[in-house]
Design goal:
The structure holds 2 protein chains of 2 kinds. Chain A is an alpha+beta fold. Chain A folds into 2 domains: about 200 residues, Metalloenzyme, LuxS/M16 peptidase-like (Cytochrome Bc1 Complex, Chain A, domain 1), CATH 3.30.830; about 180 residues, Metalloenzyme, LuxS/M16 peptidase-like (Cytochrome Bc1 Complex, Chain A, domain 1). Chain A is built from 15 helices and 11 strands. In chain A, the strands form 2 sheets. In chain A, strands 1-2-6-3-5-4 form a 6-stranded mixed beta sheet, sandwiched between helices. Chain A has a 5-stranded mixed beta sheet with strand order 7-11-8-10-9, sandwiched between helices. In chain A, about 45% of the residues are buried. In chain B, about 40% of the residues lie in helices and about 20% in strands. Chain B is built from 15 helices and 11 strands. In chain B, helix 9 crosses helix 15 and helix 11 packs antiparallel against helix 15. The relative contact order of chain B is 0.16. Classes of the chains: A alpha+beta, B alpha+beta.
Chain lengths: ~425, ~400
Amino acid sequence: MSSVPILDRSHAPAPGAIANPTLTPVQQLTLDNGVPVYIIEGGTQEVTRIEFAFEAGTWHSNQKLMAGTANAMLTEGTSELNGPELSARLDGYGAFIQNEASRDVASIALYTLNRFWQETLPVFESMIKDSKVPQTALDIYLNNRRQSHLVGQEKVGVLARQAFSGQLFGEDHPYGQQVDLEDYDAVSRAVVMEFYQKRYTARQASLFIAGKPPKALIAALNHHFGGADWIGEHSAPFEYRLPDPQQALSIEVNKSGALQSAIRLGRRLFSKNHPDYFPLQVTNTLLGGYFGSRLMTNLREDKGLTYGIGSSVVPLRHSGYFFISTEVNADATAQALEEIYKEIGKLRETSPDAKELERVKNYLLGAFLRSVSGPFSQLEQLRSRLFFDLPENYIESFPKRLQAVTSDQVQEMANRYWQEAHLIQVVAGP
Amino acid sequence: MIEFEKKTLSNGLRVIVHPDPTSEIAALNLVYDVGARDEDPKRTGFAHLFEHLMFGGSANIPEFDRPLQEVGGENNAFTTNDITNYYMTLPAANLETGFWLESDRMLNLAFSEKSLEVQRQVVIEEFKQRYLNQPYGDLWMLLRPLIYKQHPYRWPTIGQEVRHIEEATMADVKEFFHLHYRPNRAVLSVVGKVEPNHVFELAEKWFGPIPADTHYQRQLAQEPEQKAYRRQEVEREVPVNSFHLAFHMGGRNEENYQTVDLISDLLGRGKSSRLYPLVREKQLFSQVGAFVSGSLDPGVLMVSGKLQAGVAFDDAEKAVWDVLHELSTQGPNDEELEKVINKVESSLVFAEINGLNKAMNLGSFELHGDAGDINHEIEKYRQVSKANIQQQATQVLRRENASSLWYKAL
C-alpha cells in the first residue's frame, strides 16, 4: 500500500493564473436604412437572440408612463393579430419575447430556436413596425400598473426609493419623476400611438444579435428591417435641467404599521465615461458591493441587524448616482445609520490595506469573467459600451484598469464623493 | 443533450462532470438531500437557518466567503422544502479552492455561538422583510396549512413562526448537521472548462476522507386524500383582492407529472392560455396564471389571480371553474398541445445556455433518481397525449380536490 500524504486543510490550494478572456470579435453591418447591427456569434445551443434598442426611454417623453406603456404595447396587437394571437403564434414555436423600457432606452428581444426563425422573425417584425395599441389591451395594462402601484406604496423599500430619486433629480426630471395614481388616467391610446410612431423607428434603432444566427437570417435582416417604410423622422434632443448640487438632507417617509424601516442613502454623481467612475466603482465594491463588503460584514454578519445591505454606483446616460440601501428592524434604524456613517467615515480616514483591496480586485476580476462568459453576456457588455460611448477597448482593458487602482485612490474617492455634507438620507418606516 | 461523466466515491458521494470547454468560468454545485420537509414540526425553519450557518466558518477555515472571493469566485445557497443547494462559480483555474471550501464544511462546522446568534437575527429580519412586512407576504403561510394537513409541506422553509428560530439551540444545530450533511446524502456537480478525471481526483482528495452516515431514515407523514372542498377567507391591509385555487397532484418523479405540468401551461401560461380571456374578455381578473409546485412529494397545481375592482370572489371563482371544466370535458386541441410542448422544449434548451443552471439541474436529477434523466425530460413531455391531458384534468381539477383562498383587501 502506498502512503497517502496527510491532507492539509488549513491552507487554501495555490491559486491558478486567471486567464484573460478571449472576447468574440463583433461583426458589424449597417442595414440599408442606416440601422447599425452588431453580431456576436457563439455558444453551444442552436438558438438566437435578436434585440432592438430604441431611443424610447423615460428620457424621450414629456409625459409620465409613456415609455413603459408604448414598450409593453408592442406585444399587444398588430393590424393582423391581437395580443393573444401574437402570443400563440410565438409560443407555438417555443419563442420568447423580452421587452422593457428604462430611463434612457427601451428594448425588445426575440429568443428563437434556429429551426423556427423564418416563422418567428416576421411576427417580431410586425410587433415592432405595426403596433396598434389596442384599447382593450391598454386598459388591462394600465389597470395592472395601477394595482402594482398600490402594492408598491405598501412597501417601505419602494417608498424610500421614490423619495430618494425625487430628491436627487427633481420631480420634473425624467430620472426623478414621481408617478401618482392620476397619471395612469392621463394615458390615452392617441398619445401612446404618437410616441410609438415617433420613437420606434429605424432612426432611433440599433440591432443586437447573439447566439448562432443562421446565415440566411442575417441575409434576411434587410428584407425585414432595412426598408424606408419605418425610417421615421429626425428628432430634436431632449433637454432637462438638473437641480443644483445638494447639501446633506434627511427625509422621513411615514408608513405606519411597518415592521421594518427602509434606509436609502446617497447622492447624485456622473455617468460611466467620467474618469472617476471606475475607481469609485472599485471603492463602492469594497464598501457595499459584494457579500464580503464592509457594510455586509458589519451590519449583517457581525451585528445581525439586517437580512442584507448593499451599495451601488449606478450610471445613467446623462448622470448617475451612488446609493446604499437596506431594510432593518424599525427599532434598530438609528443604530444601523450610525454604523453606515461609521463605515463611510473609516474609508475617508484610512486607506484600505493591500490585502483587502486585493480581495476586492480578485472578486471583481471573477465578476468580469462571468460578465463576458458566453455570447449573450458579451452582447450585454457591448451594448453598455456603445450606450455610454466608451472606447473600443473598454471591455478587454478591464483587468488592466482594475490593477491600476491603488489604496490611496480608494481613500481619495471616498473623500471626494462621500462627504456627509453631500449625502441625502431617506428613511421609510413606522 | 448534456453529456456527462459520473463517479460515486466509496463514502457514497456522487460526482457528476459536464465539461464545457467554452466556459472559463466553472460552476460547482453541491446539493444535500435535506429540506424543510425533514424538520421536526416543533422546530420549523431549521433547514434554512442551517443554510445560513454553513457560511459561518468550518473545521479548518474560519471564513467561507473570503478565500473564494480572493480567487475570483462567488457563491450562494438556497433551501426549499425538499433540498438545500449550495452553488458557486469561479475561474476554472481555481476549481480546487471550491473543493477545499465545500469539503471542509461538509467535514465539520466551527459551530460558534456568535455565528448562531447573528444568523438567528439575520433570519428573523429575513422573515420580517420577505414574509411579514410585504403585501401578500404571508400568502404561502396561509396556503400551505390549507392544502396540507399532515405532510410537512404544511410549513414554509422560513419556518412556521419566528419563535422556532428564536429557540434554536447549539445542540439542535449540531444534531441536524451530523444527521443530514453527509457525503452519502449529497451530489456534487461541476460544469465548465474542466477534465472529468481531474475533477474525480479532486473529489477523491478532498471529499474521499469524509465518513458516510446512514442513520437518517426519512419517514414523512403522508398527506391523506382530500375528501371535500376547502375554502379560507382572510382580510389584510392590501390594495387588491387576490384569489388562489390549489389542487393536489403527484410528485416530481411520478408518472403523470409532465401531463399535469402541461395542464397548468394550457390553463395559465401566457396570453394565449385558456384562463387569459378572464382578463381580456370577461374582465374579472387583472392578471391570472397557473403553475405547478414541482415538489418531490405530492405537490400542487395552483391557479392564482388578482381580481378587478368591484368583482365578487364568487363570480371570479365560478368563471375559473368553468374554464377548468371545459378542459376536463373537452380536452385540448392538437395545436394547443403542440404549442405548450414546444414552449417546454425551448425553455429547456434556453436553460442549457447557462453553466450554473446545468450544474444545478444535473445535481437535482441525480439526487432524485438519475442525472441521465435530464436528457429524457423532453421525450416525456412529447409522449403526453390529448387523452392523457383530459384524463388527468378530470382527475386533478375536481372540487373535492381543491382548496380555495380568498385573500381580501380591507
